[in-house]
Amino acid sequence: MAESNDSVFVDVEKIYLGGKEHHVRTGCGSVSVIVYGDQDKPALITYPDLALNYMSCFQGLFFCPEVASLLVHNFCIYHISPPGHELGAAPISPDDPLPSVDDLADQIIEVLNYFGLGAVMCMGVTAGAYILTLFAMKYRQRVLGLILVSPLCKAPSWTEWLYNKVMSNMLYFYGMCGLLKEFLLQRYFSKDVRGSAEVPESDIAQACRGLLDERQGINVLRFLQAITRRPDITSGLKKLRCRTLVFVGDNSPFHSEALHMITKLDRRYSALVEVQACGSMVTEEQPHAMLIPMEYFFMGYGLYRPCQLSDSPRSPLSPSCISPELLSPESMGLKLKPIKTRVSHEG
Question: Can you state the angle between helices 203-212 and 54-62, rounded to 10 degrees?
């Protein structure tokens, strides 16, 4: 395990939420961690999807005032980037060993130990959700709960394998080229956000495209190769003893994967939220849809959003506003039922 004197601390105020960046050296290379908040509070760690970091995967969620107040009031946030995905990252040497998904999960325990953290709450998106689920299986005592957005749990289908192979070739020969970014935007967002000949590309997609320009192609390729070689972890899902809240956009390419996963999790401790008219990255496309389910989820841990009765009339947490079924006693506390969120479209 890496000792603290082998790690480098960069005391630089970040624009994003005033967080500070730490570079933690692990057995599989250096990992960037952005820490925001009071480190005496319980820890929430995040892990993004392929080619993303905290800025491009969780900015929308933390810029949603009500969600930010819920999370920042209750947690210290630790944004973990996949190796070489942080802002300003240099290309990783081709001579460095290619990490496996197990290596990436093991890096997380080294990060937790470096910061002296015990059990943590975890939030991950797609590939990041897979890494955190694997982490929870390997280190069950270190995970309080899982919030998974459009998660993966099976080995790649033939369709995904072919899709990833094409992206791998583009990354190898052309780097972060325009066509590759189109593939990635299809992975992340619904068609409405990506735009078409009739509908202009949304600000969200444009911002994401710009942030993708900052990635080093070789670093993204390494993460993609690890995810493409991932094993099926379905058989281990029933053994998880933490609560799990799964979000998925109904336009996500991984929608069926999330539905499969929820059927394999222990029903007493898990819930599915399907977000309509949304792609994979609910954190960016419809972060407001995550608020109320997360409020219910955190209530099982005794956590609440400050000023919930006056701060947001759209999302009160007074007991009279909560379905009794949602608060039925369970051995681990709160029981969540599968719900769908709907988005009304104005003509």
Answer: 150
CA 309-43-112 angle, to 5 degrees, is 175
- Give the whole-angstrom CA distance, residue 239 versus residue 242: 9
Per-residue pLDDT for 60 more than 60? yes
Residue 198 pLDDT: 79
Q: Are 180 and 213 in contact (CB under 8 A)?
A: no
Render 163-186 in DSSP notation, one character per residue.
HHHHHHHHHHHHSS-HHHHHHHHH
Q: E strands along the chain, which residues? A: 8-13, 20-26, 29-36, 43-47, 76-80, 120-125, 143-149, 243-249, 270-275, 339-341
| pLDDT tens-digit series, residues 75-104 | 999 999 999 999 999 999 989 999 999 999
Mapped to the 3 state alphabet, what secondary structure does 23-44 carry? EEEECCEEEEEEEECCCCCCEE
Asked if 189 and 204 count as a contact pair (C-beta separation under 8 A), the reply is: yes
| Mean pLDDT across 119-142 | 97
pTM given for the model? 0.86
pLDDT tens-digit readout, 225-260: 999 999 999 999 998 989 999 999 999 999 999 999
270 Ramachandran zone, left/alpha/beta (phi>0; psi -120 to 50)? beta
The whole-number pLDDT of residue 340 equals 52
